[in-house]
Write a structure and sequence with these properties.
Elements: E1 6-10, H1 19-29, E2 36-39, H2 42-51, H3 55-62, H4 70-74, H5 87-97, E3 109-116, E4 122-125, H6 130-137, E5 147-149, E6 152-156, H7 165-171, E7 175-179, H8 187-200, H9 205-219, H10 223-229, H11 231-239, H12 250-264, E8 277-279, H13 294-307, H14 309-316
Helix pairs in contact: 1-13, 2-3, 5-6, 9-12
Length: 317
Amino acid sequence: MQRKKIGVALGGGTMRGMTHIGVLEVFEENNLPIHFLVGCSSGAIVAAAYACGKLKELKETALPLKNKDRRKMLDLSFSGGGLIKGEQLRSLFDFLTDGKKFEDIKGLKLAFVGTDALTGNEVVIDSGSIAEALEITTALPGLAPLKRHHGRLVFDGGTAMLVPAKIAYNFGAEAVIGVDVSVGRSVITRTVGDFRKMMRKSTLRRVLNPVFKMGDKALNSSEEKFFGKVRNLMKKLKLLDDYEKHKFNFFEAYLIGLRAISADYKKGLFLDGDCDIAIRPDVLHFKRSDISQTKEMIEEGRKAAENILGEIKKLLL
C-alpha cells in the first residue's frame, strides 16, 4: 500500500523554535517520512538544518548557549539598516547549510515563507541559496537588515503565516502536520512590541523616542492617514529595484514593519483546522528570547510528538 505524502510545517517563535528539534528527532527515530518541509522564521532554521543533515549540529550548537551569549550572537550595530549587522547569524546559516541551494536537497521538498513588505502576503522561497533565504525569513524590521527576493522587499514570515501549513498542501502534500511554538499574535507583532518596551527602559530611550511616538500614532490611525505619513517611503519602496544601491535605515525599516503589522495581524494566526494534525508543545512559559533553556524546549518538542505518535502513524496510511 502506498503511503500518503506527508508535509510538515514548522512555525516561528524566536528561541522557542528550537523546540522543533525534538519533534524532528522523534520523526527520525520512528522512520516517519517527510516529503515536504516548510518553515518560517526560527522554524525555517530547524527545517534547513534537518534538510541539510545538520540537525545534530544545530542541537549541539544551541545547547551550551547561555543568555549572556546573546550579545555575541547579535553583533549590535546602530548605523545600518537594523540594530544588528546579521553577520553572526549568517555565519551560523552558512555552517548549517554548507553552501547548499534548495535545488541540492534530495528526498524532500524544502521551502520557507517570508512576508511581502508592501502587501503583507506570504512569499514562498524555494530556490537559490538556503542561507540567504534564512536571512530573509528571520529578518525582523528594525532589528535585522531587510533583504530583497526577486525584486520584492521581504521580511520575517511570521506576519503573513505563523505556521505555513497551507504552503505544504500547495506543494502537493496529502496530509500536513503543523507545529506551533508561538502564541496567538504574530511573532512580528510580539517581537516589535517587546523590543519597543525594552528600548524605552534603556539609555537609548531619548534617542529613539521619536520613532516610538510615530509608531504609536501610525498604529492608531486609519490606513489612509498612515499612508499619508509614510507616502514618501512607500514611493521609495515601489520604485526600488536595487537593494544594494538603496539601503534602509532603522527608522524606515521600523515603519515598514509597522505597516505590515497594522494591516491585519490576525491573518498570521494558526488554527487547528489549518492542517491534519496540529502539534502544540508546552513551551509558552519559556521567554521567546531565552537561549538558556534549549534543552528543556527540545524535550517538550519530543514529548508533544511522542504523545500523538499513534495519530501520525495512522495519518500515513
